[in-house]
Amino acid sequence: MPPKLSDIVKSNEAHLAALSSPPVAVIVGGTSGIGQGMAEVLAKHRKGDVHLIIIGRNEEAALKILAGLPKPDDQSPCKHEFVKCDATLMKNVHATAQDILGKHEKINYLVLCTGFLATQRIETEEGNEASLCVHYYSRWKFIDELLPALQKAKDAGEEAKVLTVLSAGYGGKSIPTDNLGWKTFPSLASRAQFMTTYNDLMISVRQLVLHGRLSRVEN
Questions:
Q1: Whole-angstrom Cα distance, residue 86 to residue 99?
Q2: What CA–CA distance (Å, rounded) separates 17 from 151?
Q3: What is the pLDDT of residues 121-140, one digit of tens each?
Q4: CA–CA separation, 38 and 199 (whole Å)
Q5: Could you tell me which residues are beta bridge partners of residue 81?
Q6: Cα dihedral sign for 73, 146, 159, 36?
Q7: Half-sphere exposure of residue 215, counting CA atoms within 13 Å on the CB side?
């Protein structure tokens, strides 16, 4: 019998409150929806004592969210900040990741929940399809570039977790091997299936790399 939601909430609250040091949480797509909810829950259960980095495009929404969060006390080194990033461009993802690494040696939580609804193919200046960038390429790149900081947290005996929110396990059984970059734009139903499958495969490959069963995969 599955646990009750109330029991899950209590368990998560107790776990986050018991952490010995303030965690560093990077939430990509944190200006609305699930990302916003994650930021608010982390700040609530830690009573503001969390290094919180919200990444997105909507600065106005982000600042409103940050203003409503519990604040760390005056003696806490924690900061709550917004980093603007258009995840349709990999150069932006790279610059954002490097900026974060320059400020934080360790990262405990990386949450990826960006969303983008396109009704037609939109090609970026880098030659990629925009919605595929947001739902797949940028997620891969954020994980790949921030992995050293996650690994340092793990090596220090701290939590180090990555959560990518995109219908995990609900992808199709195949991918368009003759159209991986979506030069021909798939239908809405096909896009939903393909993006989920791409993400499922991405996480599976990263796990194989981390467990030493594959060599490091280059972008």
A1: 14
A2: 22
A3: 889 999 999 999 999 999 99
A4: 20
A5: 53
A6: positive
A7: 2
